[in-house]
Please model this.
Amino acid sequence: MIVLIVEPEPALGQLWKRHMARQGAEVHLVENQDAAFALLRDRPVDMLVLDLDLRDGSAFAISDYASYRRPDARVIFVTNTTFFSDGSIFMHSPNACAFLQSATPPEDIAAMVVHYSRAG
Model:
């Protein structure tokens, strides 16, 4: 399982990365859209964990690009806001499989990554 995390807060991204690596994932962590595009161009990816609140770029642009470059990859969106809490994110991103709060325990996010990577 190869996971791409796009998270602008390095400490939070590292925390998630450690938990996913403990589950046996190969995890790549980037902070912005350009780095995510480069990785998606060059590497296979099974799962993406995308923070909706990027400072540099758009999580939706990354999700769209992933659906083109890696059509089997699934996306878990995370955010610290209530925007999209109505579930409409699934209408905007066909490769979305989950929508979580950033404060979700990292072990739960890792479990969801494992679950959805196997469910595909």
Notes: The chain has a mean pLDDT of 89. Residues 2-119 form a domain with the Rossmann fold fold (CATH 3.40.50.2300).
